[in-house]
Inverse folding.
């Protein structure tokens, strides 16, 4: 399954699963165009991503601030010893909107879904930074990650 995801099946499967849910729930035409489609690769450790990558932002000329956090800085890893990987968030260069998120580490898909939900709700990154998230969880690392976002440049 992971190989299929690496060669393109994973993203297509997300769309197929979503289309099936929609068809069962009442039909109609639905597409992934202009929608926030995540992906996960279930390797060890897993990879999850949603939104723009740093490279895509550069290619598109989108100004972005980038914050990173090694997984060993996430408190939950002290109890699981799953310290491989990192979290990375892209935030708008001139505003606080979350543009993208990537994680390689234990529970990456679940943590990414938290960020995807924030993106869908158009929440600014300080909402994740300042949220009280259950301890000890991998998602708790979103607070320290978002604390690493560089401040807006004065214009």
């Amino acid at each position: 399954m992971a190989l299929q995801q690496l060669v393109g099946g994973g993203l297509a499967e997300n769309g197929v699963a979503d289309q099936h849910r929609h068809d069962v729930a009442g039909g109609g035409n639905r597409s992934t165009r202009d929608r926030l489609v995540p992906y996960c690769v279930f390797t060890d450790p897993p990879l999850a991503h949603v939104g723009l990558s740093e490279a895509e932002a550069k290619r598109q000329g989108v100004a972005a601030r980038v914050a990173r956090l090694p997984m060993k800085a996430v408190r939950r890893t002290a109890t699981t010893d799953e310290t491989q990987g990192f979290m990375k968030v892209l935030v708008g260069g001139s505003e606080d909107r979350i543009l993208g998120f990537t994680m390689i580490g234990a529970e990456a898909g679940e943590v990414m879904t938290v960020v995807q939900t924030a993106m869908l709700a158009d929440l600014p990154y300080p909402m994740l930074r300042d949220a009280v998230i259950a301890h000890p969880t991998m998602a708790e690392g979103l607070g320290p990650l978002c604390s690493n976002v560089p401040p807006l440049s004065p214009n």
